[in-house]
């Protein structure tokens, strides 16, 4: 792999996790980066767009295929395809346009055991394409993976991984009930059923 591509992958990881995350505790990384990961911030979205949209387009066009061969570059590839579109194209159908490709790369990484060569906090983002999937088998796999992470966590990180496992459970329950995420219906131009419309009025129905 060309050095420049390795540097690009490292830039993605440093942006998302912070420099030196490999040697930091999971709870420390999560506390430091959670505003970047989970908040709806126009400035963060714009920064993602400016810095990473060209690489996202390269990934979608299969020009980063070599990244799928190693743990860290696979992690960067999954961030590009699964996380960054949700920032770059927030509140549009394009935010979910790369989910299938992310899901495929996720399954490949798991089949190759690449996730096992990454820090636990990084593995969260390897597994998230399955949590974002509207396929019940992916959801079951996601639930198992996140529960395993929680069981393996040390005392200092037990709470954060229990939180991730709880979110995986909530996603699984929605797909088990509806076969899709109702909160995506409007953006994707899908008609909601009466049951889904009622569900969307409840707290916690959207992610």
UniProtKB/TrEMBL annotation:
Residues forming coiled coils: none
Pfam families attached to this UniProt entry: DUF924
Gene3D superfamilies xrefs: Tetratricopeptide repeat domain, TPR-like
InterPro entries: DUF924 (IPR010323), TPR-like_helical_dom_sf (IPR011990)
Segments passing through the bilayer: none
Lineage: superkingdom: Bacteria
UniProt cross-references to SUPFAM superfamilies, sorted A to Z: TPR-like
Protein name in UniProt: DUF924 family protein
Source organism: Herbaspirillum chlorophenolicum
């Amino acid at each position: 792999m060309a050095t420049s591509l390795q540097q690009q992958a490292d830039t993605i990881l440093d942006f998302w996790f912070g420099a030196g995350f490999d040697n930091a505790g999971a709870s420390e990384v999560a506390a430091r980066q959670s505003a970047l990961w989970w908040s709806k911030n126009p400035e963060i979205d714009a920064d993602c767009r400016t810095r990473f949209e060209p690489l996202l387009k390269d990934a979608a066009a299969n020009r980063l295929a070599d990244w799928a061969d190693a743990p860290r570059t696979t992690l960067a590839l999954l961030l590009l395809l699964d996380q960054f579109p949700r920032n770059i194209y927030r509140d549009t159908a394009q935010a979910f346009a790369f989910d299938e490709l992310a899901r495929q790369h996720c399954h490949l990484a798991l089949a190759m055991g690449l996730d096992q060569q990454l820090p636990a906090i990084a593995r969260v983002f390897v597994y998230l394409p399955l949590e974002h999937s509207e396929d019940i088998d992916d959801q079951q796999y996601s639930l198992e993976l996140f529960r395993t992470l929680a069981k393996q966590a040390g005392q200092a990180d037990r709470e954060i991984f229990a939180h991730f496992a709880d979110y995986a459970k909530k996603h699984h329950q929605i797909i088990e009930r509806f076969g899709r995420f109702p909160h995506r219906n409007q953006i994707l131009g899908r008609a909601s059923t009466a049951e889904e419309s009622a569900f969307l009025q409840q707290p916690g129905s959207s992610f």
